[in-house]
Structure formats: C-alpha cells, structure tokens
Amino acid sequence: MFGKRLTEAREKAGLSRKDLADKLDVGQNTIWRWEAGERQPSIEKIQAIARILGVTTDELMTTSTPENKNAPTDVAGEGDGTRRKITMEDWIRVPIVSREWTACCGNGISAAEITNMDEGFVLVDRAKFYRFDDMRRPFAIWCDGDCLESAGIKDGYLAVINPAEDVMPGAIALVSIGNSLSLKRVNFMPNGDVILRSDHGPRRLTPEQMEADEFCVIGVLADVHQGRPKAVPL
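^ thats the sequence. predicted structure below, dont judge the formating
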C-alpha cells in the first residue's frame, strides 16, 4: 500500500515525519495519516514527495495484482499472478462524500438530510472498476458498524461505490431503504423478492415492501482498502 511505501522511502532518505512535513508545507499529523493509510495525498503532493525523497512516482504507487480472482485480467501477466505495475495514469480520483453520507453495515443510517460538502478524495486503481461511466462516477463513503467484518469491512473504513456496475448475485452493494443507507450482500430472487444479508443474518423484502420503503441499489462496492470482497451467492 502507498502508506507503507512512503514510510520506507522516507526512512531510507533519512527524514523524520516532521522533516518531510516541513518540506511539503503540511502538518506532521498529515504525514502520519498518509503513512497509516487513513488519507491519500493529491497527485501534485505525490509528485513533490517523490522529488524530495529521490524516488519516482511509480515507485511510490506501484502495487501488486489484486488478490480478487474476479478482478479484471492483469496487464503484464494476463491472470498468471505476476506483478502488475500501476502508473499515475491508472489511478482515478474518487471523491469522499460528507460523513453525513455514512453507510451503516447494520440497520442503516438516515440519509434524509445531506448538507455537507465532499471531504477530499482517494486514489483508486482503475482496474478495481469492472465498468466505468462518466455519467455515474464512483464515490467513497465512510462505513459505520461491524456487520460485514467477514468481508473485511470494518468500522471507519472507506467503501468505494461504483453506481455504473451491475449487481452480481451475492455482491456487496450500497442500498437505500426508507432513507437509510446500508452496505449489504444483495440477492434478487426469481419471484421478485430481494434478500439482503450481513453477518447478523438475512432480511427479505417483497416487491410491495420495496416500493413502500423506496428501496433502491445505489451502487456496487468496488474497493475497500486492499481489495473487493468476493461475491457469495446463495
């Protein structure tokens, strides 16, 4: 991950977090958040970091092929597990929406009153998106709760949502039920029902309940930290 590579490059250059912060004209706490993986610097900052530490941006951003077996074929190895080099052109700036847009991994959190502005952005590998649509661009949302820890989604994580992607059986998606946002595994049934699952068990909605609760799927979970949870069909 970027934070680990930043730490290694900084220490190799013999700089403390304060030294690097002073050279970049940012707070020392900002460097700590970058290295801890809590935030991502802008592309311009990454380029400045590379110059200061005497490395290339590719060295800071290079990552290995995703472990997810359902991910698109890697560029260099064509699915054979070899490493793939990620350059700056392969990263997409995904906006982080306001913390009022909190995705609950449990019963849901009200989304009736959304007023705050976006909270910056994260850089996401383009390969994480099976489909990319400029009219329905991805966004990142904060997670609240622990009902999907089995999928590697923990309280306080950022979930990257892709509204342009179709929901595969068992995939995790951001859904809205009665003005509440939730991350759930989604299965659409032949009779028109939908089954929503988390670590706390399933919930079945009939077409009548979906209409009454204004149920809709906002987008599919494309990434959360180091990878996308696999779909688990019924």
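DSSP finds six helices and eleven strands in the chain.
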